[in-house]
Structures are given as structure tokens and as C-alpha cells.
Specification:
- The protein is an alpha+beta fold.
- 17% of the residues lie in helices and 39% in strands.
- Strands 6-7-8-5-10-13-12-11-9 form a 9-stranded mixed sheet, with helices on both faces. Strands 2-3-4-1-14-17-16-15 form an 8-stranded mixed sheet, with helices on one face.
């Protein structure tokens, strides 16, 4: 099972289509409208939906100590070259390209409505491998010919609880960890793999803030997962009538045929 689709709200669908197709080589699926467009990102789709409420009304902040959604990650080749093109176009960066823990190269930047995106180059070298078969399947995907959806990152309170839930309900296997030994907050990353996609979960040993999902403002709205609908999580309804579940850390997702 896997992450099938990521819904991103935007104030101008055409502008966002141009951004994602020009800079990230995503491919348009079907016929875009002013209200909606679907983009192929190889292992999942990114769905752009029009909303009237802009970035300024969002309660999301770019602080990983806020629980819930943190960013969308894409595997790429030629990361520095791609980052240079984004910078030349005036795209706002949160983190310039650098070599990170796990022997990968990464950078962080924003889409036109403030959704935080990451580009990652290279195969992660895990501090601890918990599922060797899962890691082997990940590496077998190889170097992408064009940017490929890799993960959604979320900040959580309890890794054991999160891993158990997404394993039982959505078939995600906990494949490994990356530690951040120089981070005074006690930062650790866990990787839950489903199909060709990943939930990247951040944990910290310091207090974190809460955030309720917002389905009607610009930015990340929710992910669509394979699996069975949960019976014990809170529910929201998106502007188009989709049932959206909220896990204990404030991460919003829809399930299978319900989406």
C-alpha cells in the first residue's frame, strides 16, 4: 500500500501547474480547469485544487516542532542544477543545497502558495535498518529520470504509536532511522515505507506545538492513502465533500475509494 495522491490547495491553479511542470517536470494528467489539476509525479499524483483563502490565513508554520504536515519530498538527479534554476526564477528557499545526514544532498523551497517542498539526491544510508527488504526495494527504484514523489514528512509525538497505526491500517513498514546527533532538540527521523512511497516521521525530545488541519486555505491539504478507513479517528469534510481523517498528531489523510 502507498501514498496515492497529495492534495495541495492553491489560489491560482494555472500558476501552480506552470510551476510544478516547469521546475519539477511533473506531467499534467487529463485536462486542467481553473478549479483543479492533477499532475503525475511518477509514484503518486499531486492534485492542485483552487481555494479562495490564501497563504496568510494558514496556521502552518515552517517550524518542525509543529506537529502534523511538514513537507513534500521528491527524489531528483542534478539537484544543484535544479536548485540554481529555481533560484534564478526567484523561488523562495528555506534551505540551500547541502550534504545531509544519511549521505544525501537536499534543499528546501516553497511553491507559489507556501507549501514546503524538498529535493533529495542519492540513496539514504540509514543509521539503523529495520526492514532490509524495504530498503532494498527503495534503492531498486534507482535514479529518477525526472523528479519522483518520495515522501510526505510529518512531526509526531510517539513513533511506536504512529508506526503501529500506519502498519495496521495502511501497510507501511518501518524500514529505518536517521539520527541527527548535533541537534540539541533530540531530533530523530523514522521512515515508514508503503509501496514506492514513504511517510517520513520526525520526533523530538522537546515540547511540540499542535495544529488543526485546514482544508480550505492555500497549502498542503491532505494525502490520499491506500488502506481501510479508520474507525477511531476524527473526521473532517473537504470543500469537495471528501471525508478526511485526522491522526493524533494532526496529519490529515483520505482513504482509498472514499477520496
Amino acid at each position: 500500500m502507498a501514498i496515492k495522491n497529495v492534495v495541495v490547495n492553491c489560489t491560482d491553479v494555472q500558476r501552480s501547474v506552470e510551476y510544478y511542470t516547469k521546475f519539477l517536470e511533473l506531467q499534467v494528467v487529463g485536462e486542467p480547469t481553473p478549479e483543479r489539476a492533477v499532475l503525475d509525479a511518477v509514484t503518486a499524483t499531486i492534485e492542485l485544487r483552487a481555494v479562495g483563502n490564501g497563504r496568510e490565513l494558514s496556521t502552518w508554520v515552517g517550524d518542525d516542532l509543529q506537529k502534523g504536515f511538514r513537507h513534500v519530498g521528491l527524489k531528483v538527479d542534478r539537484l544543484d542544477e535544479r536548485a540554481a534554476v529555481l533560484k534564478a526564477a526567484g523561488v523562495e528557499f528555506k534551505l540551500d543545497p547541502l550534504d545531509a545526514e544519511g549521505k544525501v544532498r537536499i534543499c528546501f523551497f516553497y511553491d507559489p502558495d507556501g507549501t514546503l517542498l524538498e529535493m533529495i539526491q542519492g540513496d539514504l544510508q540509514y543509521a539503523e535498518i529495520l526492514d532490509a527488504d524495504g530498503v532494498a526495494r527503495e534503492r531498486a527504484l534507482g535514479v529518477p529520470q525526472r523528479p519522483r514523489f518520495d515522501h510526505v514528512a510529518i512531526t509526531i509525538e510517539d513513533r511506536e504509536r504512529t508506526s503501529a497505526y500506519y502498519d495496521e491500517h495502511h501497510g507501511f513498514s518501518f524500514i529505518g532511522t536517521i539520527e541527527q546527533p548535533h541537534d540539541q532538540r533530540g531530533f530523530s527521523i523514522g521512515y515508514l515505507k508503503g509501496g514506492d512511497t514513504v511517510l517520513e516521521v520526525f520526533t523530538y525530545q522537546v515540547p511540540k506545538s499542535e495544529r488543526d488541519p485546514q482544508l480550505d486555505v492555500a497549502g498542503f491539504a491532505y494525502a490520499e492513502l491506500d488502506g481501510k478507513p479508520p474507525a477511531d479517528l476524527g473526521k473532517l469534510v473537504s470543500p469537495d465533500g471528501t471525508t478526511v481523517y485526522v491522526d493524533p498528531d494532526g496529519f490529515a489523510f483520505a482513504v482509498g475509494s472514499e477520496a
